[in-house]
Amino acid sequence: MAKMNLLQAVNNALDIAMAQNSKVICFGEDVGGFGGVFRATSHLQEKYGRDRCFNTPLVEQGIIGFANGLASQGSVPVAEIQFADYIFPAFDQIVNEAAKFRYRSGNLFDVGGLTIRTPYGGGIAGGHYHSQSPEAYFAQTPGLKVVVPRNPHQAKGLLLASIRDPNPVIFFEPKRIYRASVGEVPEEDYELPLSSAEVVKEGSDITLLAWGAQMEYLDMADQLAEKDGISCELIDLRTIVPWDIETVVASVKKTGRLLITHEAPVTGGFAGEISATIQERCFLHLESPIARVAGMDTPYPLALEKEYIPDHLKIYEAIKRSIHF
Amino acid sequence: MAKMNLLQAVNNALDIAMAQNSKVICFGEDVGGFGGVFRATSHLQEKYGRDRCFNTPLVEQGIIGFANGLASQGSVPVAEIQFADYIFPAFDQIVNEAAKFRYRSGNLFDVGGLTIRTPYGGGIAGGHYHSQSPEAYFAQTPGLKVVVPRNPHQAKGLLLASIRDPNPVIFFEPKRIYRASVGEVPEEDYELPLSSAEVVKEGSDITLLAWGAQMEYLDMADQLAEKDGISCELIDLRTIVPWDIETVVASVKKTGRLLITHEAPVTGGFAGEISATIQERCFLHLESPIARVAGMDTPYPLALEKEYIPDHLKIYEAIKRSIHF
Amino acid sequence: MKTGTKDRVVHKLNFIRGDELQIPTYKVLKQDGSPYKGATLPDLEQSTALRIYKAMVRTRVLDERMLAAQRQGRLSFYMQSTGEEATTVGFAAALDDEDMIMAQYREQGALVYRGFTLDEFMNQLFSNERDYGKGRQMPIHYGSSKLHYMTISSPLATQIPQATGYAYGQKLAGEGKCTVTVFGEGAASEGDFHAALNMASVLKVPVIFLCRNNGYAISTPSNEQFAADGIAPRALGYGMHTIRVDGNDTLAVYAATVEARRIAVEQNEPVLIESMSYRLAAHSSSDDPSGYRSKKEEEAWASKDPLLRMKQWLFLQKWWTEEEDSKLFDAERREVLATLKEAEKRPICKLDELITDVYDTPPTLLVEQLDQLKAHIRLYPDAYPKTSGDLDHG
Amino acid sequence: MKTGTKDRVVHKLNFIRGDELQIPTYKVLKQDGSPYKGATLPDLEQSTALRIYKAMVRTRVLDERMLAAQRQGRLSFYMQSTGEEATTVGFAAALDDEDMIMAQYREQGALVYRGFTLDEFMNQLFSNERDYGKGRQMPIHYGSSKLHYMTISSPLATQIPQATGYAYGQKLAGEGKCTVTVFGEGAASEGDFHAALNMASVLKVPVIFLCRNNGYAISTPSNEQFAADGIAPRALGYGMHTIRVDGNDTLAVYAATVEARRIAVEQNEPVLIESMSYRLAAHSSSDDPSGYRSKKEEEAWASKDPLLRMKQWLFLQKWWTEEEDSKLFDAERREVLATLKEAEKRPICKLDELITDVYDTPPTLLVEQLDQLKAHIRLYPDAYPKTSGDLDHG
Ligand SMILES: Cc1ncc(C[n+]2csc(CCOP(=O)(O)OP(=O)(O)O)c2C)c(N)n1
Ligand SMILES: Cc1ncc(C[n+]2csc(CCOP(=O)(O)OP(=O)(O)O)c2C)c(N)n1
Ligand SMILES: [Mg+2]
Ligand SMILES: [Mg+2]
Questions:
Q1: Does the domain at residues A198-323 carry the CATH identifier 3.40.50.2300?
Q2: pLDDT tens digit string along A23-46?
Q3: If you take atom 19 of ligand 2, which residue's CA is the nearest one?
């Protein structure tokens, strides 16, 4: 075990993946000698050479187009998009190409080796172009997997699993806690399962569900609720699609209540999908409406960021509303 | 009144908009002399000149980037994307630019004049690249309006309203019924309201909600259910975002049941958002789970299209399941 | 700092005009099949020359017959490559058969050359159970892993940066292979084109960009597609080797591709070839070109038929006769029709294929969706006649 | 058919190499301020020359002070344009003040030249209630409708096709105005660049594409950004007029832009100007360039300071003295500091601005969300100190 922050855990996972498989190749804007603007790819060029870790020209659609081709050739590209806000120029290469590559060819060709890493989320005074949480934009795209880790230990295990998963994966890294989230991380190679939610705390009154940096607010809200004698079950969804319906259903059948939180705007966010699915499957078990605590339906603001964020206080209030419905 | 099919209604709306306002400009791939691959812009170049109706080079990101600039200058661009499946290269210009233009500038600049027209949907043996229904991809983007008409009369009134609405609008045209849907359309200039759902048939047992071409299947399913003595209320949502929550809530409070159908894959589709919102607002009125009848979670198929489509029979069966829950 | 620019300095204000940059067209054969004086002729063996010509003939016949079949309502859609066979067969012949080809959709000639059988074509065109693509894409979206031919994808130009990536992988693999990506002059307007060429130059990748400049993108003529002297000058803007060839001259296309491949593989440098030709047929079976161009223009180009030119050259070489030629055409027509008749009878794939290949294995939710669909079809077997009879054999 | 290509034919197989295309750099002044022999000097009045120089000085001082303020923790973020003032002020001076400018983010010089006041700068930098952008974007995302300066947007290159569209509207309006879009050599790699230039050429649009080639895109040096001789050759690939200028030479930038504007407005044709310079400071306040380049390289470029060159020229013209110069610097420093102190005290905008301008009027759901937020803040006023005291004044 070693103490690592989330960035170091990502860097460590990339290092292990590259050491173990010479087909793993890391690239993106400023990813090479400099090691990325957040330094997630530090020292990888030194260790594995310019052929396997390099800067690309500044063109996201090209980065992912290139990555798709490289993956179809049998390599294992790990492409970085510098900020999730800048993933949209590559949207076509992701949803029309990567996601449909295997299906359209009847499995003659696939881009299963592809992983796209990108820092997402707010809370860093970044305004609307350094704060977005675009996971739901990808959630209506069969063929993609979307993964979000909540801490260093999860980040390493989930990233290694994503790189080795035989399907294209978008790996969203919670940049607000890149350095703030520090924890014990095994030094060796390990994987954590995709499409498997984790019950991080058991409880009986209400199920609280989140992913990524939002798990921190969930914890804080839980502590407030605990003082009121409310017993919360906390679940980290970890993989957004294909998501682990069974674990959430089992929990809600037990608690009778569900609250989902994410940073992205509420309308069209993935909480809507979860809510719809759970009310289909747990209708007779629900004691109150499934609650969503999410970003407002505006672009991500700057000066009013604190007000905008779905923080622990908003979650706590929503927990109480659900319990006292 | 005149008999028109949906394409003619679109063409007629464009003609009226261009005649009435010299700032309206239509362009896109093959839109000029040829009048578009579906002929929605027929004769407009002849009538209004090459400056106001023209072919662009083959580059969707450029078409929408150009349209954004033109709108910010005060013109009223109506840009065509040849198939909705090809809108993704322009995704960044739509969700990061058009949607945020006014907000980010504090209303110094806006692209309110922009309308993007694009044919969407399946049922035409088009496989996964001529059949997609991508409305939900845009639904998590505050700042955009998304509109889908169900017939020629609606198409003309909603398109005229979209062109004149002071916000960017994506106007999805149901190409399966471009020629099949024929009806009486007023010859004069008229608008139908955006963000306003229409109750197309009143009923008391269950609310059925859809938009665009899917309204046809809803009608057919309703006729089957009627024979069983089930009284359905039919609503055409018409505007996907910002959507008319009040009308749907009022209906569900009355009927106690809701079924939503769309062609796009179920996971991440807009039915999820509607379901989540309605269960929040009508929890105590719901007599059965809100049902979704939608595309399966795969790319749009070809040979198995008939099996894949959320048709009237699937809707009818879901109505019965809801009623007998 | 390196700005990438050289240091020549001037003190007079002088704009360079875009039309100063013009690129000539490389041409070997006259339309009567005889070489131009002093022309660089490629080194072409008789067997290869005949393999090329036969592939051109098969492509021509296939296109004719399948459009006719489409008109008869036997298949839903078709795209002809008529007039461009010199380009699509000629480049393929210049490659190693294991080089990767990532094409647009009008390059059936290359597939024919590599040995994709008529049966393989037909199975795709009829979306039957033997289609490698499992009936999921529209007709003409062929692919073959054994022939190193990437499955066609409709969104234009997406294959171009993918080719750069594929070729990068080939470079690291070090097996001396390259990738050729083919695209139209219309597709070259897409952002992906720019990304692909620039990345290929910077990353030094063995990829050949072959642009089929056939004058139109559906109804849009190339003078509404770009204002410059074609596509080739763009390559110079990326510091790339480039050449323009007469796309109706099989030998010119072949010779240029042989040399391009040498540069790509030996120097790990990308090359662009712009092949000038004309789309003699409609854009697709859904299109009617009379709405946007004249018969006269079409006829002018019809007189430059690449098959004719190649045939005349073969005659001059004494490698082929008029008699052999008409026999070949007859035999091809018969074979195409016979294969068509077999393929159109075959059933479509099983319902289970609806959910395979979305992921490597179907997720639980998708399996549930399939089960529900099967239950539904059992309720209404007549409404889903293609699959209801065979639900449990998946 | 027009293929857009000329008819020159060759019969020898000959690839054109990308590095054959090289574009010289137009330069007027030596670093000591004296003109090169025979140089084309622009026609520049004393008042304009001084307006330009003063704008360069203000830009320099603003950048110095605001970075210092950022280091003191008084503002969250800043981006300097040091070393590139000749480009950003010089081009603006060559325009009609009503021409539209659509810039990237490092063009504060142009805004200074047009008369954006220090107070206006500060209000944006401190996201206070007077910021035109209502505190919604990060520092340096300026905009001014009255100065015809489009609000900056972070996603790179998106403004380039927008500029083509804006200029198309200007052409139809027929008022003799044009649009200038500025972008870095890094941003020129984006697909939007390609789209914008090609569309501008084909649609004959009065737009000037001004590329600031400053050697780096964050840490990425330009030889990892492109393999060609810079950005200018690309313009030729679109059939566009182009010129490369010394971006540290104010007079060269000015002269080139005057002529580019004439071509754009009189001929309705786009022009590309590549301005060669160097980003002397870090990419932004978040960046440390010592990780990717040498002090020596930085010093070599520091010696080419554009302010110095312009000042020396003014001295030679006898339009300016060393004394006036140091007075100006002092005055600017004082004024910047004084304005800063006022601006940082101002409160942020009201909570209601969270939901305005998403649409022309807020939809019902958004109004509900704001009401809920207000109710929530009332429960926890201490947790939201910036807004809780003033919830009802919106
Ligand atoms: C991204 C995208 N936009 C639009 C289309 C529709 N479309 C199909 S083919 C075509 C024209 C292509 O022209 P070109 O590249 O010149 O090839 P050609 O048909 O001449 O061989 C268009 C616009 C598409 N398939 N993909
Ligand atoms: C689409 C997009 N991708 C990435 C970024 C992150 N980013 C901001 S500035 C920058 C470098 C830009 O370099 P250049 O265009 O040369 O301008 P310079 O900073 O040198 O003035 C990058 C990569 C962005 N803002 N937008
Ligand atoms: Mg073409
Ligand atoms: Mg730069």
A1: no
A2: 999 999 999 999 999 999 999 999
A3: D217
